[in-house]
């Protein structure tokens, strides 16, 4: 909903509500005011369910942090809205040396940061040096920059990156390029929140105001090198529950809502002025096992159940999950069963198990696996670990603000009871849930990630190199504490393989290992269900071209391309009336906002 600075009287609020609800066209003036009213900014309001702890693009642990960083800062290379292929960003072209060890990028001329300072190759050089040398900035990008031998800017329009060994990652440079003249003055990247508004960046929008659990307000960069947005401000407004955001859409208090449940999506089918969008998703939902929280040096920590270190237990649990029923009952059929870590939207790298490899829902097979492994049932029907007799009683931790996970949990508990496993369902907000994960204080936990077009960073979550250095829970680059040298070997091989089909085969082998060893079980790929006020907004460029999404893109195509309906009609020669603030005159109700902290790496991937 729109942000206002002054409390409104009830009468004025009632009039504004009428304007929002029925699209009343008001005259530009009423009576004989002594001074003309100040024009309200045109705002695109997007419902959000996540809070932000920092606007530091190197340190954000939230999915929305990736979105805001992409709007505030440009990257060298972007992902095409049509098909996710690499396209020019700040780099207009690039060249690879014959030995594949030197990459030269030509930096776009005439780009300026929002404070008027020119952006040059030296800003990119500074950014990558920061990622290479500062531990905090390095953590989320180690998989890439550890292979950099050097980075240099011989002039303002040339960036040269020399590699230790060839890699196919050099067209996946979608990290934020920060202004050197601002960031070189920062003493501690780790502690820098980047709350000095307005933020200085080169992107199409700049953050100008933020209130925790309420809103993020971004102002359009009217001098943006790729064309200024067609409206004044982009606002992410927080809602405590999905139902609240849906009601706000209907009431005209918000313009875009995503992450809808099937029931919410259906409820909007015949709402006037609202268009729904059912899109492919680049995300998956999953459950993650505590396979033994430990540091790089092998020091165990946390309180995970030791039985989950046994791959046979995890495989049995996988057999006791009916994914088709979950999709039918929880998703109303608007999802696909999960198998691999890379969703089907990225078909080149998506791995589909053969019929014989597929882990099917089979309670009898799950019981057979546990029987053969020596997990005998006790008098209460609950199985015990061989040797110490500890019951197979697992804590299943779900997100308190995701109702579908509560339903999932009930189904899982029922199926697992049939194989002699007792399940204690627990709920926590996203911050607490992720804190528990990285402290190793869990048994089984609901998770999920948004996957980028290049799968290297998402697959690195299961490499030995991202295990934490200590047990404090502050290093958050692993997903399950899984470590497998054979998997690591394949990961390094795929980074060096330049032939796409050959690389895809290696990546599919990695996903096969994850599927078989089951440190994580991918439950589903849910469709992206969203809706927007089409009576106010048009022009959203979706990604990809086939069944594309508006929210959750790899880039900012939708938010940059959006236009108020009246402006689009004016451009086609139509005469329209005046809408205040792009269709919603004022905000009437401040939603109660909840913190939904989403863990994410500062890469193209973000945790749900």
Walk me through the structure:
The protein is an alpha+beta fold and 608 residues long. The protein is 27% helix and 19% strand. The chain has 18 helices and 22 strands. The strands form six sheets. Strands 13, 14, 15, 16, 17, 18 and 22 form a seven-stranded mixed β-sheet that branches. Strands 1-10-9-8 form a four-stranded mixed β-sheet, covered by helices on one side. The model is unreliable at 1-34 and 573-605 (pLDDT under 50).
- What is the rounded Rg? 25 Å
**Segments where pLDDT lies below 50 for 5+ residues?**
1-34, 573-605
Number of helices: 18
The total count of strands amounts to 22
Helices, strands, pairings?
Elements: H1 10-22, E1 43-48, H2 63-72, E2 77-79, E3 86-88, E4 91-96, E5 102-107, H3 121-133, H4 135-139, H5 142-145, E6 148-155, E7 158-163, H6 180-183, E8 205-211, E9 215-220, E10 233-238, H7 242-251, E11 256-257, H8 262-267, E12 274-279, E13 283-289, H9 311-319, H10 323-330, E14 335-337, H11 363-372, E15 393-399, H12 403-417, E16 422-428, H13 430-438, E17 444-450, H14 456-459, H15 485-496, H16 500-517, E18 520-526, E19 528-533, E20 537-538, H17 557-561, E21 563-564, H18 565-571, E22 606-607
Parallel strand pairs: 1-10, 15-16, 15-17
Antiparallel strand pairs: 2-3, 4-5, 5-7, 6-7, 8-9, 9-10, 11-19, 12-19, 13-17, 13-18, 14-18, 17-22, 20-21
Helix pairs in contact: 9-11, 15-16
């Amino acid at each position: 909903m729109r942000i206002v600075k002054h409390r409104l009287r009830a009468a004025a609020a009632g009039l504004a509500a009428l304007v929002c609800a029925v699209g009343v066209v008001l005259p530009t003036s009423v009576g004989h005011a002594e001074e003309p009213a100040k024009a309200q900014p045109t705002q695109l309001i997007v419902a959000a369910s996540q809070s932000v702890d920092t606007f530091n693009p190197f340190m954000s642990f939230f999915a929305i942090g990736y979105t805001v960083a992409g709007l505030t800062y440009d990257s060298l290379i972007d992902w095409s809205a049509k098909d996710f292929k690499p396209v020019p960003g700040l780099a207009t072209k690039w060249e690879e040396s014959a030995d594949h060890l030197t990459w030269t990028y030509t930096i776009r001329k005439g780009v300026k940061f929002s404070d008027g300072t020119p952006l040059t190759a030296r800003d990119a050089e500074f950014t990558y040096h920061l990622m290479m040398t500062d531990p905090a900035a390095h953590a989320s990008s180690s998989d890439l920059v550890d292979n950099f031998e050097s980075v240099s800017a011989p002039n303002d329009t040339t960036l040269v990156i020399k590699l230790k060994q060839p890699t196919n990652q050099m067209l996946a440079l979608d990290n934020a390029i920060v202004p050197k003249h601002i960031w070189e003055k920062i003493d501690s990247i780790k502690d820098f929140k980047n709350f000095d508004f307005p933020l200085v960046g080169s992107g199409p929008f700049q953050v100008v105001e933020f209130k925790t659990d309420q809103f993020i307000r971004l102002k359009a960069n009217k001098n943006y090198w790729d064309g200024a947005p067609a409206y004044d401000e982009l606002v992410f407004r927080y809602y405590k529950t999905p139902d609240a955001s849906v009601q706000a859409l209907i009431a005209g208090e918000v313009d875009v809502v995503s992450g809808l449940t099937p029931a919410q999506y259906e409820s909007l089918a015949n709402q006037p002025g609202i268009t729904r969008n059912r899109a492919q998703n680049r995300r998956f939902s999953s459950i993650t096992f505590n396979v033994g929280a430990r540091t790089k040096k092998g020091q165990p920590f946390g309180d995970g159940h030791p039985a989950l270190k046994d791959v046979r237990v995890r495989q049995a649990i996988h057999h006791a999950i009916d994914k088709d029923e979950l999709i039918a009952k929880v998703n109303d059929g608007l999802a696909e069963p999960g198998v691999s870590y890379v969703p089907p939207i990225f078909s080149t790298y998506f791995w589909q198990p053969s019929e014989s490899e597929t882990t099917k829902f089979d309670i009898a097979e799950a019981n057979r696996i546990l029987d053969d492994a020596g997990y005998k049932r006790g008098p209460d029907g609950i199985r015990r670990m061989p040797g110490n007799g500890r019951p197979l009683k697992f804590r299943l931790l779900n997100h308190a603000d995701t109702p579908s996970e509560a339903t999932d949990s009930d189904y899982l508990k029922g199926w697992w009871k049939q194989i002699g496993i007792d399940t204690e369902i627990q709920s926590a907000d996203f911050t607490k849930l992720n804190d528990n994960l990285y402290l190793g204080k869990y048994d089984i936990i609901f998770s999920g990630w948004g996957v980028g077009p290049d799968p290297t960073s998402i697959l690195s979550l299961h490499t030995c190199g991202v295990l934490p250095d200590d047990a404090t829970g502050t290093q958050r680059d692993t997903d399950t504490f899984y470590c497998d040298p054979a998997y690591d070997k394949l990961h390094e091989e795929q980074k060096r393989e330049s032939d796409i089909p050959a690389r895809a085969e290696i990546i599919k082998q990695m996903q096969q290992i994850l599927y078989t060893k089951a440190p994580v079980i991918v439950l589903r790929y849910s469709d992206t269900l969203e809706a927007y006020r089409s009576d106010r907004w048009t022009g959203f460029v979706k990604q990809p071209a086939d069944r594309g999404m508006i929210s959750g893109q790899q880039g900012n195509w939708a938010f940059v391309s959006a236009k108020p309906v009246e402006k689009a009609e004016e451009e086609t020669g139509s005469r329209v009336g005046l809408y205040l603030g792009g269709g919603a005159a004022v905000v009437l109700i401040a939603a109660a906002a909840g913190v939904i902290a989403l863990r994410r790496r500062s890469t193209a991937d973000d945790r749900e």
